[in-house]
Amino acid sequence: MKPSFIRGIVGSSPDPSHLSATHVHLKDIEADNQEDALSRMRAENWSPNGEALDLLQSKGLQHTTMTIGDVLVDESDAVYLVTGIGFSLLPKHEEPHH
After folding, report:
1. Cys-Cys link to 43, which of 20, 33, 50, 65 (CB 3.0-4.6 A)?
2. What residue spans carry the region label Disordered (predicted)?
3. Using an 8 Å Cβ cutoff, are 6 and 82 in contact?
4. What spatial distance separates the first Cα and last Cα of the chain, rounded to whole Å?
């Protein structure tokens, strides 16, 4: 998530149709499930010696470990918000058909 989204996180969820407004794509990873992805994106696992700092800074990000407010997008484009108790699948807003 962008630092600006962190400040406004209380009571708001990102719009899965417009993630670029609140989030920056960081990297693609292979994971078995959401918990595995969260584990792989802990700083001590993917950037134990600060390897990710240049990547993070280049994207305007300030935190290394995946945390509450970050999102995972799976191969089916489902968007999961990291919450205090796990993950929440964000509903996609369908465009109305005319």
Report:
1. 65
2. 1-20
3. no
4. 34
Measured distance CA(25)–CA(70) in Å, rounded = 10
Q: Are 41 and 66 in contact (CB under 8 A)?
A: yes
Q: Which two tokens stand for residue 37?
A: 């992805």
Q: Decide if 94 contacts 77 (C-beta within 8 A).
A: no
Which whole number is the average pLDDT over 51-57? Answer: 94
Give the list of residues 6+ apart from residue 29 with CB closer than 8 angstroms, or none: 37, 40, 41
Give the ranges where the chain is alpha helix by DSSP (H): 3-7, 34-40, 43-46, 53-58
pLDDT of residue 81: 94
pLDDT digits (tens, 9 = 90+) for 2-46: 888 766 655 578 889 989 999 999 999 999 999 999 999 999 999
92 contacts 15 by C-beta, under 8 angstroms: no
